Amino acid sequence: MIDERFIIQLQGKNFVTYEGLLDQAHQQGLEAIQVDIVQLPGQENDMTAVCRATAKAGDRVFTDFGDASPASVGQNLVPHILRMASTRAKARALRDLTNIGITAIEELDVGNREDLYPETGQKKTDGRKQTAMPENSPPTKKQMETIKDLSRSLNIPVDTGNLNKKTAGNLIAHLLDEKYKRH
Question: Does pTM surpass 0.90?
Answer without folding.
Answer: no
